[in-house]
Design a protein that fits this description.
With about 675 residues, the protein is of the alpha+beta class. It is built from 26 helices and 15 strands. The chain has a five-stranded mixed beta sheet. Strands 1-15-14 form a three-stranded antiparallel beta sheet. The protein is globular and about 70 Å long.
Length: about 675
């Protein structure tokens, strides 16, 4: 299906005060800040199905001036690309965002009542998701205000919005799904994500890259990671590369400016070398340089300040090729790292003692680096919704030859733990013992799962000779299979006495609490996140579902997990944790075989059979029960903000961190300070 396009350039919203000939007036951008010592510091806002939280940066004042400068420059480099994520998510996102910003800043009509309140909620949803589609479900946000009201508000704010963009907001049939993983449809044409030309089909994408990937090499490039695939004037497919002077050039040029400053205050030569490769990559879009950067980045294991920058994860591409822009700037937490680095030091033991087939085990696990870090700034696909753990790089050959870095985002997890909100435990736990285990060990169990998932899980296993990058082989199922594989590694070892021996947990009750939590979430709790009648499409939700459902079915004959219905409510009670561990090991062996051999049919059967379809009766029940829970199902963060303090000679003498009070206020400041792209690319 070919979609028409009409171009309309909108200035950043703050510029509209002048561009539209309106007189200057007091700013409507809320610039108030809060202190970490304030009561209720962690909770900032809530709306729709979202909680907005804050996190603090412990130990900031103990950093050297050089380290603070480095954090500041890297954070500015990350924020410079914020517009990229918006444009990648949907082709009309930037123009819609700027129209919303204009109304928030310039509208002089009634700022109360049903219409305004619905608009403000919609604005927050769009800002939180970096676009008009939900950040997790991929469904379009539904405006509860009328089109007539919005058109009037736009007119009174001095801005126009093209009919196509207006239709995208109000017509539920237009570009309804950001990322579609419905196997019965053409995945590219059914997805609104802006990685492909509007008339490019799935078959064409597969054919285009098949020729590139057919070339045998031990160091395959990540084809498609850094480009948009479009049809040129001659009807041929071609890539528009993300680079300075190319697609997203203005934002990347701004980012390079700050990365060059970061090079000047790098902590060591290894870090300086990696930053140099990243700058070259942004300038050229050369995928070989991207690999050079990742190798250099993995080898930098001494720096206190570290970062994730670039076009990294491929979850937003239904074909699993194109990287979403993201930025995370982080500082090592040496105390927390020391407490958990024993997992890193024993990586070979975990590999040797895993239930994988011998030919799929790594004989020499190299270069794994694991740290607990404190996040100091995020942007793009990492904000406002953020991960709690990351393992990179993604290229299998780099992992095998050079290793990987894993991080747990300590202050993010801490903010989740300290934020208020009623628990799901009383609603979905089977009995008092399950609740007791969760309260006693749930926090540690979650941290251990994240550590094992990132450090051991993603770094484990190897492909068979002749099998290329499995993201290409397994297509749209690659992401969910890899996340499920890493989860299974964590689940298998979190019930291993070795963890007690290593001193990272006091008893196997921690593992039991994690098993309870995983099954409870995979089969019940996470269903509160999707709408009635919908399938599960998000990769992580799918993997939790297929792991849990497969294990439940596999253990039925031995009553390993028993389904209990009490007063019309469904619960899952684990009766034999040791047998469940063996089941997880059996599934892990098969999942690794699928990945190692690139077995698409087996992967498709596993995911489609156990991880996609939802029992409508169970779903309705979960939604009914979830009404008792006051805590919203999703959460994300307002970012701390940095300000450079300069001396008389213009040099930076300090970098101050503040914690904004208002979510919309930060979004409007970002529009003012970090907008570098036109409305459509």
């Amino acid at each position: 299906m070919k979609r028409s396009r009409t171009f309309l350039f909108l200035l950043p919203a703050v510029a509209l005060l002048h561009a539209c000939g309106q007189p200057e007036k007091p700013s409507r951008i809320n610039s108030e800040t809060v202190s970490p010592s304030d009561s209720g510091f962690y909770e900032a806002d809530e709306f729709a199905d979202i909680r907005v939280l804050r996190y603090q940066i412990p130990g900031w004042d103990q950093l050297t001036l050089q380290q603070k400068q480095l954090c500041y420059y890297l954070n500015m480099a990350g924020l410079a690309g914020r517009d990229i994520m918006w444009d990648q998510n949907y082709r009309y996102n930037l123009r819609i965002r700027r129209a919303i910003e204009a109304v928030l800043l310039n509208y002089n009509g009634e700022r109360s009542g049903t219409e305004w309140e619905a608009f403000e909620t919609y604005a927050k949803q769009v800002f939180f998701s970096n676009g008009i589609h939900h950040h997790y479900s991929n469904d379009k946000h539904e405006p509860a205000f009328s089109r007539t009201w919005f058109e009037q508000a736009l007119a009174e704010s001095g801005v126009k919005l093209a009919p196509e963009a207006m239709e995208a907001i109000f017509n539920p049939e237009v570009d309804a799904k950001k990322v579609s993983l419905d196997a019965s449809k053409d995945l590219v044409l059914a997805s609104a994500v802006n990685f492909y030309g509007e008339d490019v089909s799935q078959g064409e994408v597969e054919q285009y890259y098949a020729a590139k990937e057919a070339i045998g090499t031990d160091e395959p490039l990540s084809y498609g990671l850094n480009s948009k695939l479009v049809r040129n004037a001659s009807g041929q497919l071609e890539e528009r590369t993300y680079r300075v002077g190319g697609l997203y050039g203005p934002a990347l040029e701004e980012s390079v400016k700050w990365l060059e400053k970061a090079m000047g205050v790098a902590e060591n030569e290894a870090q300086r070398k990696a930053l140099g490769f990243l700058i070259e990559y942004y300038r050229t879009g050369d995928l070989k340089v991207w690999d050079d950067f990742n190798v250099a980045w993995v080898k930098d294991v001494e720096s206190t300040v570290d970062y994730i920058l670039g076009f990294v994860e491929v979850y937003n591409d239904p074909m699993g090729k194109r990287g979403s822009y993201e930025a995370i700037v982080e500082v090592n937490d040496p105390v927390a790292t020391k407490n958990m680095e024993v997992i890193m030091r024993n990586a070979q033991w975990f590999e040797d003692n895993s239930p994988l087939l011998p030919q799929h085990k790594k004989k020499d696990v190299v270069g794994i680096t694991y740290r607990f870090i404190n996040t100091v700034g995020e942007a793009g696909d990492a904000s406002p919704s953020t991960p709690i753990g990351v393992n990179l790089p993604n290229a299998n050959w780099i992992r095998a030859k050079h290793g990987s870095k894993s991080v747990s985002l300590g202050n993010i997890s801490d903010a989740y733990d300290k934020s208020s909100g009623s628990s799901t435990l009383e609603v979905f736990c089977h009995d008092a013992k399950e609740i007791e285990l969760a309260k006693a060990h749930g926090a540690l169990a979650g941290k251990l799962h994240t550590a094992l998932h990132e450090v051991v899980g993603h770094a484990s296993g190897q492909l068979e000779p002749g099998v290329g990058e499995t993201d290409a082989t397994l297509k749209s199922y690659a992401s969910t299979l890899e996340e499920g594989r890493a989860d299974l590694v964590a689940l298998y070892f979190v019930m291993d006495p070795k963890l007690v021996e290593l001193g990272v947990m006091p008893s196997l009750e921690v593992g039991m609490a994690e098993y309870d939590s995983y099954i409870r979430n995979g089969l019940l709790v996470q269903l509160r996140r999707i709408k009635p009648g919908k399938d599960i499409e998000e990769a992580h939700m799918r993997n939790r579902m297929w792991v849990s459902a497969w294990a439940y079915e596999r253990g039925k004959a031995d009553s390993v997990i028993v389904k209990v219905v009490r007063d019309g409510d469904t619960y899952y009670d684990i009766r034999d944790y040791d047998k469940l561990r063996n089941i997880f090991g059996e599934l892990l062996r098969e999942v690794q075989r699928i990945k190692s051999q690139g077995d698409y049919k087996a992967c498709q059967a596993l995911v489609e059979t156990y991880g996609v379809k939802v029992d409508p009766a169970i779903h309705a029940e979960v939604l009914r029960r979830a009404e008792q829970i006051r805590t919203k199902p999703y959460a994300g963060f307002i970012q701390p903000e940095m300000e450079a303090v300069t001396g008389a000679d213009g040099s930076i003498t300090d970098v101050k961190v503040t914690y904004p009070k208002d979510f919309l206020g930060q979004m409007l400041r970002y529009a003012e300070r970090h907008s570098f792209l036109p409305d459509e690319n």
